[in-house]
Design brief:
The chain is mostly beta strands. The chain has two domains: about 170 residues, Sandwich (Immunoglobulin-like); about 150 residues, C2 domain (Immunoglobulin-like, Sandwich). It contains two helices and 20 strands. The strands form six sheets. A four-stranded antiparallel β-sheet has the order 7-4-3-10, with no helix packed on it. The chain has a four-stranded antiparallel β-sheet with strand order 6-5-8-9, with no helix packed on it. It has a four-stranded antiparallel β-sheet with strand order 15-12-11-20, covered by helices on one side. The longest helix is centred in the C-terminal third of the chain and has 12 residues. The N terminus is likely disordered.
Length: about 350
């Protein structure tokens, strides 16, 4: 492997390019080199592993920096994460640590999605020069968050967390290929916006008001649904997905309420182009209902949930009864409100699939 020249980390009193931590109203503000894009509010911390393994319970203060670069090789369809070095890490034992770096492309936190560098013994300034590789289409990276965490390899599997950095690849500038320094950050709770990002679902929905469809007595409305496609699906393990979409309109959870699309084989951008109709709606029923869409990966023996969307007013109850499935996000509630207001017209949306659907 070609050696990378080491760029220094400027100490106290150094240039404006150095990484630093500031104190503001009691909160620690972490910054990074201005030579790379700002992380922004979407970059949130959260390692996929526990802080410590079974055995000694020990929490270490996070400090130091990590230097790495990103590059996407289009001909090989390969993401390359070059982990170069760390500086000024926290000492885990006898003024030294045995550091290594672990990598995930969130929300994939499976063992197949984990990559690791080698372990460097008894140092707080490890030099790695290790390239971690992922085989995937560049379009798939739009829904991924790069998580690089630094760990101390202890005895008997007692690995200790030393800090991490996360980059939202949706906004990453792929022309930026030069190595950059990032300040290691303490762990904070994972954001549902990151953990639950499994792709997007494209829908169009139209509600026909009672009486519009004919002279039925009493007049009843219909909900017309067009499931168009899914975009940038994130598989549960390496490879592609054979997916289908299942739909029901709650509170009716009877078998006759469930409809589904056909299975689209081995695609992360499946085109379902499937329409379905639900009837029997009176005036005001949609405000009490929830249209639930779930995307499934069809396996040999069973299907596994990739994520879902719930369209409702999000009021927490249906016909005066508290229900768990009225848990729509603001974006989902806004779209459902548009469907109700624009009766007789198609309303289109592309919504993120989420994994945090409250069990019903």
């Amino acid at each position: 492997m070609e050696e990378i020249s080491l760029s220094p980390v400027t100490g106290e009193g150094g240039s404006a390019d150095q990484n630093c931590a500031l104190e503001l109203d009691g909160h620690r503000i972490l910054t990074h080199s201005p030579s790379v894009p700002t992380l922004g509010s979407k970059s949130l911390s959260g390692s996929m592993m526990s802080l410590f393994s079974t055995g000694e319970v020990k929490s270490l203060e996070v400090q130091g920096w990590i230097q790495f670069s990103l590059q996407y090789d289009s001909p090989r369809k390969e993401l390359r994460v070059l982990v170069i070095q760390c500086r000024d890490l926290t000492a885990a034992h006898n003024q030294r640590s045995n550091p290594y770096v672990k990598c995930y492309l969130l929300p994939d936190k499976s063992s197949q999605g984990k990559r690791k560098t080698g372990v460097k013994k008894k140092t707080l300034d490890p030099l790695f020069n290790d390239t971690l590789k992922y085989k995937l289409e560049q379009s798939e990276l739009q829904c991924r968050v790069l998580n690089l965490s630094v760990w101390h390899r202890g005895l008997l599997g007692r690995n200790l967390f030393l800090g991490e950095v996360e980059l939202d690849l949706e906004s990453w500038d792929w022309n930026q290929i030069q190595p950059a320094w990032y300040n290691l950050q303490p762990r904070t709770p994972l954001s549902p916006d990151i953990l639950c990002r499994r792709g997007r679902l494209s829908l169009a929905i139209m509600f026909t008001s009672p009486g519009e469809g004919g002279s039925s007595l009493p007049p009843l409305g219909e909900l017309h649904i067009w499931v168009k496609e899914a975009q940038h699906l994130v598989p549960l393990k390496a490879g592609t997905v054979s997916s289908f979409v299942k739909c029901c309109v709650l509170p009716d959870d009877s078998p006759s309420s469930h409809q589904r699309t056909r299975v689209m084989s081995r695609s992360l951008q499946p085109m379902y182009n499937h329409t379905m109709v639900y009837d029997g709606f009176r005036e005001g029923d949609l405000a009490e209902a929830c249209a639930e869409f779930t995307v499934w990966d069809q396996g040999t023996l069973s299907s596994r949930l990739l994520g879902g969307v719930r369209l409702s007013t999000g009021q927490g109850s249906s016909y005066g009864v508290p229900v768990s499935w009225m848990d729509s996000t603001e974006e989902e509630k806004s779209f459902w409100g548009s469907v109700i207001k624009r009766a007789g017209n198609w309303t289109e949306v592309v919504l993120p699939l989420r994994q945090n659907l409250t069990p019903r």
